[in-house]
Amino acid sequence: MTDATSTTAPSLLTIDTVGRVMTIGLNRPAKRNALNDGIILEIERTFAALPEAIGAVVFHGIGAHFSAGLDLSELSERDATAGLMHSRMWHRVFDAIQHARVPSIAALQGAVIGGGLELACACHIRVADPTAYYALPEGQRGIFVGGGGSVRLPRLVGVARMADMMLTGRVYTATEGVGLGFSQYLTEQGGALAKAVELAERVAQNAPLTNFAVLQALPLIAEASPQTGLMLEALMASVAQSDQEAKKRIRDFLDRKAGKVKPG
């Protein structure tokens, strides 16, 4: 009898669930977790079958890096039509992350480059440790971002900064990145995953309708005209406060069963 472990290739993703949090590890450490079609499609399948009990997802990289971006070996024989379809496939999968019913948090360390940065941008919260660094080397490779980066990253750091990165190859450190919008949190070295899981556990305790409103309504409101945005906000607020879970949480607060907001 043949030992299956000697012939089976390692999974492209490592998936673990603790409580209501699912962690998804990019598992190509020898390639600095470069993203190939296999990883992207595995992510799509995972989100399509996300268990109802899951309240938040954490992405991280196995090994020293989050992701060094697109596996360039996959570009060698691709013509323009195939390239277009390939980019649209990435768009579909990253949209599924951004518009999922649960929030996603990216735990960043080492290389967060090209497509890896695009994946991080599709997540709702980004946590970096001091080893993380951000780059878009597409300009030096003769290519252009294709995973939604030209839409998502400028909303985080600005068009001029993204253009500078692509034109000059500029690299930003984790310390620079937290002040510029690449991440919202900076931890001690090796602490990004633990912090991301801590945040995910907190997020998963929110009322599901509130999380839905933040993920789905807030981006639309922010991009709408002021009057349209205010109307959308009023509609979303009225729906949220009528939810039974919201009513229970408000009663608990008024009955002093829920803690008050405090700093720290």
Written account of the structure:
The strands form two sheets. This protein has a six-stranded mixed sheet, with helices on both faces. The longest helix has 19 residues, at 80-98. The chain is built from eleven helices and nine strands. Helix content is 48%, strand content 14%. Helix 3 (115-122) packs across helix 5 (149-157) and helix 9 (208-223) runs antiparallel to helix 10. The protein has two domains: 4-204, 2-enoyl-CoA Hydratase, Chain A, domain 1 (Alpha-Beta Complex), CATH 3.90.226.10; 208-254, Lyase 2-enoyl-coa Hydratase, Chain  A, domain 2.
Spell out the key features of this protein.
264 residues; alpha/beta; 2-enoyl-CoA Hydratase, Chain A, domain 1; Lyase 2-enoyl-coa Hydratase, Chain  A, domain 2; 2 domains; 6-stranded mixed beta sheet; 3-stranded mixed beta sheet; 11 helices; 48% helix; disordered N terminus
Summarize, please.
The chain has helices spanning 37-48, 80-98, 115-122, 138-141, 149-157, 159-168, 174-180, 192-204, 208-223, 226-242, 244-254, and strands spanning 13-18, 21-26, 56-61, 104-108, 111-113, 125-128, 133-135, 172-173, 185-186. It is an alpha/beta fold.
The H-level CATH homologous superfamily of the largest domain, spelled out, is 2-enoyl-CoA Hydratase, Chain A, domain 1
Query: What is the CATH-assigned architecture of the largest domain?
Result: Alpha-Beta Complex
Q: Return the domain count.
A: 2
**Overall CATH class of the largest domain:** Alpha Beta
Strand content of the residues, in percent?
5-15%
Instruction: Measure the end-to-end span.
Output: 58 Å
Return Rg in Å. Answer: 20 Å
Helical proportion, percent range: 40-55%
Number of beta-strand segments: 9
Mean pLDDT: 91
User: Uncertain regions: pLDDT < 50 for 5+ in a row?
Assistant: 1-8
